[in-house]
Amino acid sequence: MRAFVIILGISCLYFLSGEAEQLKIGAFNVQIFGKTKFNKADVVDTLSKIVSRYDVILIQEIRDASMTVIYKFLDKVNNFTEPYFIYDMKISERLGRTRSKEQYAFLYREDKIRVEAVYQYEDPLDLFEREPYSVLLTAKDISPFFLVAIRTKPTAAFEELNALDDVYDELVSVFNITNGIILGDMSADCRYLSKTKYEQLDLVKDTRFTWLINSTEDTTTTTSDCSYDRIIMAGDLLNVVTKNGVFKFDEEYGLELPEAKDVSDHYPVEVSIKVNHPLKVCAFNVQVFGKTKFSNSDVVNILIKIVHQCDVILIQEIRDVSETIIHSFLELINRNIESNCCSNYSMHVSQRLGRTSSKEQYAFLYRTDKVNVLEEHQFSDPFDKFEREPYSILISTPQNDIPPFFLVAIHIKPTAAFEELNALDDVYDELVSVFNITNGIILGDMNADCRYLSQKKYQQLDLVKDTRFTWLINSTEDTTTTTSDCSYDRIVIAGDVKCYIVKNSAGVVKFDMDYELTSEEAQSVSDHYPVQFQLQGK
After folding, report:
1. Which end of the chain has the lower number of beta carbons within 10 A, N or C?
2. What is the 3-state secondary structure (H, E, C) of 279-302?
């Protein structure tokens, strides 16, 4: 048999039906899955229910010379799950030394999983009755990983299991990653593999591998008590496993023993992986955001799209004496959230700030399922250093392991950029005292470039010289939609929260390119681009 690998290409992946908090993976020996079993409607209905539990599931023991039953079954599954989600499939060739050949099939949710490559192990020494078949997968907010399908020959369980470390090593070389999961009916118990033989396995002695289904689990629907079906993990993916076990579908669906055995003599085994969604934080000077701009529906539609890209966003330069526009804007933001997509946004707004009659407000808009606002604080500015005093919120993130941190909103007066920037370390120190944490992020339109702040003056800033602070948006970034090339909008971070920054996530959101706007259309939205970065739990 010739080994083959098909590379399908990696691209961006987007959820179509909302964000799940875990990825569920299963493996199920369906026991002689061919035309006879497929013609049993009750059995197929139960199998469809079982498949629908998983984001990706390995189906084993497909015995069908016509190679049509598994495709018909995929249609049945999708008839069961539509319109909520649909499955696609990758299937091996027919494998086996005798006429009774079998196939492996990976069924996966299209909205959750992308298959980047498939690989059929060559087995040059003919060690396997049914050679392992693998898929390389990507899923949003999870490191790429590969799955290895195996159904060992019961009477050669030890020999085949002892060759799987070589299969893993080959796949590490082929896919260039170490995150791998070997799963399937391994006949790894009872008369096929004794406790002594189990302890002698390379996959047990090699500390790279962890067996998730242990020998005390019964993976059969019969009266035996054997742990035949297993899941073995390697790589860093083990750190995000939330749970694993055996799915006893007879108990779940109220089946009698004969009904369960009609489905299979095996239970599915499963593992769940934590999906650690990054938190996207943005800041946007919307440029004179008042009644005139809000009355332009085209502009407002773009602004809504920009907000929907962020989990928490600072809106600056809100100029509205009535203080109603930002609340009306929030209503439109929530009204235009796609069905089943995301939670609503809530908001914390500062008082109107400024020395003149042209006062402004800061507003933090945030997704309520991703962010909890614990406190807010308005800097008192006893020495009147700021045109618009910094406004802060302390937040926690319930969906991940990011420690609490505070955000500091600032829109600096252009002609006093150096002086105001040089006072922000005092603001930070006050907030450390007020909130009793050091994790802080200062963000906004700082006018920190071009004619308002020379490179020499920038280097003299306390926020630059003080090693507690890290600037995420550097001076080479253009944060303006005009013909100028200035890095006015910045993000400055301090504390251990900097360890949670997603690599290369800090940058400028060029919405004119995203939404194919002309220069004139972009400038009607704002003369600034939003800036952004992402945080992700460990």
Report:
1. C
2. EEEEEEEEEEECHHHHCCHHHHHH
- Dihedral class, residue 313 (left if φ above 0, else alpha if ψ from -120 to 50, else beta): beta
CA–CA separation, 415 vs 429, rounded Å? Answer: 24
Residue 10's pLDDT band (cuts 50, 70, 90): very low
Q: Is the peptide bond before 83 cis (omega within 30 degrees of 0)?
A: yes
| Residue 154 DSSP SS3 | helix
Tell me which fold the domain 23-274 belongs to: Deoxyribonuclease I; Chain A (3.60.10)
Instruction: Based on the residue annotation, tell me whether 256 is a catalytic residue of this protein.
Output: no
Asked if 308 is an active-site residue, the reply is: no
Annotated catalytic residue, options 411, 420, 477, 528 = 411
Q: How confident is the model over 73-96, as pLDDT tens digits?
A: 999 999 999 888 999 999 999 999
First to last CA, the chain: 42
Confirm whether 23-274 and 279-535 share one CATH topology.
Answer: yes
How is the chain split into domains, by residue range? 23-274, 279-535
- DSSP 8-state secondary structure symbol assigned to residue 102: B
Q: Letter for the amino acid at 412?
A: I
Q: Are 393 and 372 in contact (CB under 8 A)?
A: no
Give every CB contact of residue 282 below 8 A, 6+ residues apart in sequence: 306, 309, 310, 312, 313, 314, 509, 530, 531, 532
Residue that has been written with the tokens 């829109």 in this structure: 411
Class of domain 279-535: alpha beta
pLDDT band at 3 (very low <50, low <70, confident <90, very high): low
Question: Is residue 37 classed as helix, strand or coil in its secondary structure?
Answer: helix
- 15-31 confidence digits (pLDDT tens): 223 333 689 999 999 99
How many C-beta atoms surround the C-beta of residue 326 within 10 A?
Answer: 20
DSSP string, 378-423: E---TT---SS--EEEEEE-TTS-PPPEEEEE----GGGHHHHHTT
Q: Among the options 129, 270, 360, 477, which is catalytic?
A: 360
Which are the contacts of 269, defined by CB distance < 8 A and separation ≥ 6?
26, 27, 28, 183, 213, 217, 219, 229, 230, 231, 244, 245, 246, 247
At residue 16, the pLDDT reads: 27
Which pLDDT does position 339 carry in this prediction? 61
pTM of the full structure: 0.66
Q: What is the dihedral of CA 517, 520, 524, 530, to 10 degrees?
A: 60
